[in-house]
Specification:
Shape of chain A: globular
Strand content of chain A: 25-35%
Oligomer: homodimer
Structural class of chain A: alpha+beta
Largest sheet of chain A: 8 strands, mixed
Largest interface: A-B, 72 and 72 residues
Radius of gyration of chain A: 20 Å
Number of strands of chain A: 27
Helix content of chain A: 10-25%
Chain lengths: ~375, ~375
């Protein structure tokens, strides 16, 4: 049984998509239930833009509807869609364990953690136009690769297709250009969270990423949950984040408990291959937001800010295959006896998150064979 | 007299914005002239999505209207707006001279050109939500910096605020996820070009950019022209691009002349400080498009693909101050006798482009003083 509580976009029998709220196996039709025209939109964006008091009053009204036995549409009758129009997509690198593991693999001859890492939440912009909803198949990307041991540049399907287990926050209320958003204003701007699979072609990435960062190694697809879980439903899951050393600059100091206690797991073709928790992330969401806007950059409704891969310190808690398999050197064994260094065609990956009683919307994706250009 | 021929969005006396075509000092109201409802939109996007035959028939109809003496609205009566809703913003690094110059400055102890540079058009995603239209003031960004010689991380207004002179292409017709767009399909997807000023805070960029690329050093603002110049008006400006060595992989081989012979200049507070030409770019626009989609990434209406800084090989032909001033060591002298290593508050920068008889829309921006967060 797959769970997931939150707001999403669904349609019935080819009708126009509209906004719904999922609980368990059913979807509540919010426009149909009389909650307002804003839910007749084909994306969550108009609702997201309304702001915190509207978000909370809507949840209170949903709560009353559910208590009174409102009718739910069975989930299997609903076609689901990308829940919101993605503005900008930013991907951070906020797990100390992941950054250390990747640094070791990508720069074996240097200090794994670069000097800036403990001073600021390192991040970059990804491709928002290729953010897709859970269930969308992922075509294995083609591209250039060159290992240090290769004489020539090669072209072809990636041979090191990977996942990244991430948690992202979704912006509701935007800000004005030139005006930083402080970490303490986080809850006034941010509506909720989704799980993210930031699919990665490690061989393409390794060859292209210097000096301007990942591009084609990531831009072919990024999958998010169907259902956006409002922060207001996660109030009891905020816990203290790991201690930071050195103490960050004042604009990155945010009072209160800002780590999210959400248990996470990665299932690969039927076998759970990793279990971890989002609470271990070094940089918190309000710090990420304060950093991303401290230069005056504005945010907008639908902006997606992902954590970066979430890895724990123990074996079996890493959020990517490159870490789980030690760069492919130690393949993992699946329940059917087969092994994986990286993803194979037809593999299905499912990311799941659980916050106590509440399940986040899962993120599913199946790998389709490559379709390289003919003239390559 | 400032020129600029192309499509843009304007409004009169607080009315709803609509699409216009500028020639010289006047704007043709395309909806008013009966060219179709698509021009009543508040952005060019619906028109861009129509495709090449609609773009060309529209230009033919505009040509007839102009020949018959259609009435133009005087430019000074029109309020102008961002011409299109920006999808994803990609910034390349396609000038050999610029990449070499920057490599020398950012990595003084290594080969300036990284091994991948001659094999693929290096690029990354920028922030689309902070793309602004010419004339929008730019607030000096605040951020973290740390020079190798500094003991501590500093926070404050950038002291190395710079420009980047670029030319960008604007996507009209999108593509499907999972299906690469070949270079030969370039003209079916791409509508036109704009000049771009990719404002850059060099000190913020230098501290943050490893290993995931530029982020806050660029994301505070990127300025584009008011007027988008259709490729169809630049037919006679396509010339042979520089020879490439080594020959690129087959997917990057595109027949025909694909460099654009557009003369460019940078004016800084009244003095022209750089003159160059877009035709010297090593990687061409169809190569950039073929590369950006070879992994199956889709493109969408309004996507903006910028060239990266355009620098020539001679002194005074560099497209950024960091190059013109040799990292600030050799300030340039302005007409009023003052000197600049980097931009000062109240400086105004104007980028101009000329393709024979035709002027591209200029890009203007003035620097406002920093507004750092109080708690920093």
């Amino acid at each position: 049984v797959n769970g997931g509580v939150g707001f999403g976009v669904f349609s019935l029998d080819g009708d126009e998509p509209r906004v719904g709220f999922r609980v368990g196996h059913g979807v509540l039709d919010l426009a149909g239930a009389g909650l307002g025209d804003v839910f007749e939109a084909t994306s969550l964006n108009p609702f997201l833009a309304l702001g915190r008091s509207a978000w909370e009053s809507t949840l209170a009204r949903i709560d009353r509807l559910v208590t009174r036995g409102a009718e739910f549409i069975p989930l299997e009758q609903a076609t689901t869609h990308l829940p919101f129009v993605v503005g900008d997509y930013v991907d951070f690198y906020s797990s100390l364990e992941h950054a250390t593991n990747l640094g070791r693999l990508f720069r074996p001859d240097a200090e794994p953690l670069l000097p800036n890492w403990r001073h600021l939440p390192v991040g970059y912009h990804g491709r928002s136009g290729t953010v897709v909803v859970s269930g969308t198949p992922v075509v294995r990307p083609c591209g250039q690769t060159k290992r240090p041991s290769d004489d020539e540049v090669r072209f072809g399907p990636t041979r090191r297709l990977d996942i990244e287990l991430e948690l992202a926050f979704v912006v509701g209320v935007g800000s004005r250009l030139g005006e930083p958003v402080s970490g303490s204003a986080f809850r006034d701007h941010v509506f909720g969270v989704v799980l993210v699979n930031d699919w990665s072609a490690r061989d393409i990435q390794a060859w292209e990423y210097q000096p301007l960062g990942p591009f084609l190694g990531k831009s072919f697809a990024t999958s998010i949950s169907i259902w956006v879980t409002p922060l207001a439903l996660l109030e009891d899951r905020f816990v203290a984040a790991p201690a930071q050393d050195p103490e960050p600059l004042p604009y990155l100091r945010v009072r209160g408990d800002w780590a999210l206690d959400i248990e996470l797991e990665v299932e690969l073709s039927g076998t759970v291959v990793s279990r971890t928790n989002a609470r271990g992330l070094y940089w918190t969401m309000p710090q990420q937001l304060a950093h991303a806007t401290v230069n005056g950059a504005s945010i907008a409704t639908g902006d997606l800010f992902a954590s970066g891969t979430i890895s724990g310190s123990e074996q079996g808690s890493e959020g990517s295959l490159i870490e789980l398999t030690r760069n492919g050197a130690h393949p993992i064994r699946l329940g059917d006896g087969s092994t994986r260094a990286f993803l194979e065609d037809d593999d299905e990956v499912i990311l799941r998150g659980r916050a106590g009683e509440l399940e986040l919307g899962e993120v599913r994706g199946t790998i389709l064979p490559a379709r390289c250009p003919r003239n390559s």
